[in-house]
Amino acid sequence: MKISLITVVYNGEKYIEDCVKSIICQAYSDIEYIVIDGGSTDSTLTILEKYKSNIDCFVSEKDKGMYDALNKGINLATGDIIGILNADDMLASKDVISNIVTCFKINNSDAVYGNLNYVHPENANQIIRKWISKPFTKKDIKLGWMPAHPTLYLKRELFNRLDNYSLNFGSAADYELMLRYLYRYQIKAVFLNQLVVNMRTGGMSNASFKQRYHALVNDYKAIKANNISFPIVTLLVKKLSKLKQYLH
């Protein structure tokens, strides 16, 4: 079973090497690594040049943002399974991909997802909060629950059948895709109770007040687009549920 891992990066010189190293140290060998660069002007390209033998497909050009770049990577992927690792993030251990593959095979699932740690941007060993997932029902999603997107691995054929990331939802494009796949089309997704990703804090949905406001609006649009009744309830519970992560 071939895994396509996609990293999107733009001026990511500070952390991109940690990201790449976490992939090339994986015990599982059948990995296709795709890097989509948005035309970086810092030393990102110089760093990536050191690992060109580990990168199967590399594109560097301007794009319309993160999700446009992800769609480029998805369209280039040839693996059975597609996963995403953001340039600031790291796979949590060398066995992550092999365990994900085993989970797919045992359960014959469409998707596998796991747990995530938010870590300090300057010290990846310092955990800020934990995102502990669980097996879910359609009701859970209606009540605002969702797996951690960076831990979600999907069969490639789903993108052909159910479409890629929509660029109409801004920073909520990942949330909208998960609603579409998991809620509207109810694909078979299996929970792997393992830490999959260490994610540095400071994502584009969690920065300034203005960005948070736009993220809220985009979340609401994503919920409505997938025909969830009482979308404001889903939105409010979704936001409140994040508080639980600080208690773990």
From TrEMBL:
Alphabetized InterPro entries for the sequence: Glyco_trans_2-like (IPR001173), Nucleotide-diphossugar_trans (IPR029044)
Name of the protein this chain belongs to: Glycosyltransferase
UniProt-listed CDD domains: GT_2_WfgS_like (cd06433)
Organism whose genome encodes this protein: Pedobacter planticolens
Domain Glycosyltransferase 2-like: start-end pairs: 4-139
GO molecular function, one term: hexosyltransferase activity
Transmembrane parts of this sequence: none
